[in-house]
Amino acid sequence: MTPVLELKEITKQFPGVLANDHIDLKLEKGEILALLGENGAGKSTLMNILYGLYQPDGGTIFINGQQINVHSSIDAIKAGIGMVHQHFMLIPVFTVTDNVMLGEESLILGDILDRKTAAARIMEISKQFNLNVDPNAMVGDLPVGVQQRVEIIKLLYRDANILIFDEPTAVLTPQEADELFKIMRSLTDKGKSIIFITHKLREVLEYSDRIMVIRRGRVIGETTPDKADQEKLAEMMVGRAVNLNQEKNKAKKGEVVLQVQDLVVADSTKKITVHGISFTLHSGEILGIAGVQGNGQTELEEAVTGMREFESGEIQISGKSIRKIKPREFVEAGGAHVPEDRQRDGLILSFPVEDNLMLCTYYKPPFSKNGILDRREIRKNAENLISAFDVRTPSPLTDVGTLSGGNQQKVIVARELSRDNRLIVASQPTRGLDVGSIEYIHGQLLKKRDEGCGILLISSELDEIMELSDRILVMYKGEAIVTVDTEAVSKSEIGLYMAGISQQSVSGSETVAEKSSTGE
């Protein structure tokens, strides 16, 4: 049987990097193929070639046995290929219908957009594939998971039969991720074929039909979920055994480094999203903030780090009360910040890697003397951190915006954790990272904790919260509904708290937990 897609001997070289080294790939009709590999392994490059965003240096592409030339995304779309990028290509102030129509506009009376017909087709697609999207909704008002469905509708609207998902769950909650994979399976049940790029081994084993592993631009091997486990896949990706469960010493709590009392924070629309939250963080401990994304964690993170003014309440860093702290003052107080949105808040994408690695302290020695940057020290710092944190970049002078999402994240983590900190606020610190990098970052966070740093860990990855935290605070609708010692609570109990079930209900009734786990 002829595969719906076949890539043969695909090769692509960038300055200093052989991104794809004679890669072969086959995709069958109705199949979900997982493309697995480290950050910078060449996965996204390969898919960008297939979608026409890059031109290969060698190799051929076949659709249903026929060789095609893909010089642009227009050629890919005409060939029935569609791609959902890691960072969505949507215009927030446009409706779903307007976003879907872009580049595929239908007109009436010569120059009037036929939104009615387009909306009707979007509704038809939405119902057919259980996407549940309102064509008239404003995209900026939609949750991230629903925005991703809009991206899928864009592909189906253009009759795509081969769908590429680049890190599809990187910005989704566990619940949204599960919903996405249900949608992906409904697509393959109706004859579509899917390639999805991911680092998350559980997803690969649970949802794919076949797994292909790429390491440093080459295909290392293929397997199927029934013949592999997480340890085997991790070793194939990284080339060595990976410790998927970090050993954690007992916390040695010291003085208070962060005190938050009755904090009230509003979002950019002036809506209150944090309602009188209070907690204390000590040196030598990790306090995990758990919760479904969108329950006030972002605004809490921004208030503590000086990126957002708060309405009322008090924040103290190392005993000093702050009201209108700025990000630089947060850094000067011994703070480090790994932001939730790496591209918006953590990097200057048009700056080289070496400059991004010293952004927070560029005005201090050794990087600056008498107001003049010392390029030799900046380069030395960059080379050391690139090596220590395994940042895959052709050069320290490469613009950070050209790196993969995971390597961009490594740049931020390297910059923030390499300083002498008293307080670290880390929001989604391993989002988009491969297992080897996650192992390293988790180890670094625990090392910082053992050195006496207080760490506020905000993560939508419940496994990460459970593994690293000494105590867990669960946020629901902007409130702290419970704070518990990690050793005294189970993952399922935290999941119930995240769903808004009270502490009394969780601790007093096993029936509640049973109903929640079955979806009743």
From TrEMBL:
InterPro entries found in the cross-reference section: AAA+_ATPase (IPR003593), ABC_carbohydrate_import_ATPase (IPR050107), ABC_transporter-like_ATP-bd (IPR003439), ABC_transporter-like_CS (IPR017871), P-loop_NTPase (IPR027417)
Swiss-Prot/TrEMBL keywords: ATP-binding, Cell membrane, Membrane, Nucleotide-binding, Repeat, Translocase, Transport
Record-annotated ABC transporter domain positions: 5-241, 258-502
Topological relation to the membrane, as annotated: Peripheral membrane protein
Subcellular localization(s) per the UniProt record: Cell membrane
Location, primary (coarse class): membrane
GO-annotated cellular components: plasma membrane
Gene Ontology molecular function, alphabetical: ATP binding; ATP hydrolysis activity
Claim: Endoplasmic reticulum is one of the keywords in the record: no
One Pfam entry name: ABC_tran
SUPFAM superfamilies: P-loop containing nucleoside triphosphate hydrolases
Name of the molecule in the record: Nucleoside ABC transporter ATP-binding protein
Organism: Flexilinea flocculi
